[in-house]
Amino acid sequence: MSLRQSRLIVECPHCHTTYTEETVTLVRDEGERQLFHCACPSCKRSMIAFIRDHEGWISTMGVVTDLDAADAVRLAVRSPVDADECIHAYQYISQQSQNLCQILLKRAP
């Protein structure tokens, strides 16, 4: 991946260190949409950057993440979480939270 191809991915949003070729990974390329993982060589923070080029207009969005580049690539090909999975997770957490609260209350002075 050439930094010249992604002129908008230049520096870490936290410490403003310039990214290098080795610290920017192209995660997904869908023509006018590209997803990058950027790792700061100085402060070690990472960012996922989304760039969309549509009819000459460029939109960008960056999100700070704890993912490394390999995780970003692996997760980019997985299917999204659907509504049923969200409901099941909510129900499980709701059921188990009472047990957790009881354990914590027993330990409180």
Structural class: alpha+beta
Q: Which radius of gyration do the C-alpha atoms yield?
A: 20 Å
Average pLDDT across residues?
Answer: 85
Shape field: extended
Strand content of the residues, in percent? 25-35%
Could you spell the SSE succession in H and E letters? EEEEHH
First and last CA, distance = 56 Å
Number of alpha- plus pi-helical segments:
2
Spans of 5+ residues with little confidence (pLDDT < 50)? Answer: 1-5
How would you write the strand order of the largest sheet? 1-2-3-4
Percentage of helical residues? 25-40%
What is the β-strand count? 4
Nutshell version of this structure?
By secondary structure, the chain is of the alpha+beta class.
Description:
- The chain is an alpha+beta fold and 109 residues long.
- It has helices spanning 69-76, 83-107; strands at residues 24-30, 33-39, 46-54, 57-65.
- The chain has a domain at 21-81.
- It has two helices and four strands, in the order E-E-E-E-H-H.
- It has a four-stranded antiparallel sheet, covered by helices on one side.
- The longest helix has 25 residues, at 83-107.
- The protein is extended.
Identify the notable features of this structure and list them briefly.
109 residues; disordered N terminus; 30% helix; alpha+beta
